[in-house]
């Protein structure tokens, strides 16, 4: 591949995106202003589209031609200094326009195919093609792994901070319970040995709220996976997270998902029409009592006929795309099973796992109505994989 093109593809994710979008258009000659408008649309507003396009031309990934007019006929020339075919004057004496056509399709396609096989296994690619077809009726279902890409702790990691205030003698006990990955056991152990926490209310106040409310900068949000999830353009987004990072990101990007909805203050489906929103099925951080944390909260949620009806309404008509969850979390895998059962026969769900193994997948397949996308990642540096996946299923990645 052309070295300069290679550089362009890896240096800046926005340039990469713009190159894909251009390649996805019909391959024909267009004016420079057409491309600069396109680049400006997909890149940060501080970027000068014209400058970027000049880089493209320099990299020789566009073919150039000059169209000029002579006595109401159109002619084509390679250089302005040539003489006109018709009147023999110089081409530059005429009304002319520079036209460009992208010619990097083969290289870009190869680059993208390589990324696809670096980031995902072969099964996942087929599932992603299927998801791409269903994207219009798919709802992202977002867990703590997504907030983690903006710097918040994962769901179970959140309880680790309790360790700082547990007397030394009890640490081995707490560590053992924490290792179980069973949220109830972890919470019980905290209540037993943490001097400031004796009930669920303390737990929310001392452990959960300070961490979920910790300051996340705009830059961190824009560099997280949130913008890509919002850009999938779904009617609404469901989340088990208490934080409002999706709403904040939407505000920064001037998208329409500012509104938080929560299951405990639900006002009927009519109230949801004509608006995009983030639905927090485990409550929101600003409303203490809405938060589903312990097993008891969780049972209350799934035992209530009213709440089950609301959840069913959110889920039945759509495919769920589960992002940022761990199947090691018993709590979630239980909920996951319920949700996948509730839209069985109508929709298929998708679950994105990270470095998942086939055995686990097969176990889940027995009980669930779900297809898997498996991200291959080292050190859980997964932002680029998530971003690529979102672009891919939105149809914004060029592959021949
Ligand atoms: Zn002429």
Note down, in words, how this protein is organized.
The structure is a single chain. With 400 residues, the protein is α/β, with parallel strands linked by helices. It has three domains: 3-103, no CATH class; 121-152 and 218-393, Rossmann fold (3-Layer(aba) Sandwich); 157-212, no CATH class. The chain is built from 18 helices and eleven strands. It has helices at 3-11, 13-24, 32-42, 49-58, 105-119, 122-134, 144-148, 171-179, 183-193, 200-212, 218-223, 226-231, 245-252, 295-303, 305-315, 330-342, 358-367, 383-393; strands at residues 30-31, 62-70, 73-77, 95-102, 138-142, 236-239, 259-262, 277-280, 319-323, 349-354, 370-375. Strands 7-8-6-5-9-10-11 form a seven-stranded parallel β-sheet, with helices on both faces. Strands 1-4-2-3 form a four-stranded antiparallel β-sheet. Bound molecules: zinc ion. Residues 70, 84, 86-87, 89, 94 line the site of zinc ion. InterPro entries: DHS-like_NAD/FAD-binding_dom (IPR029035). Residues 70-97 form a coiled coil. This is SIR2 family protein. It holds the Pfam family SIR2_2.
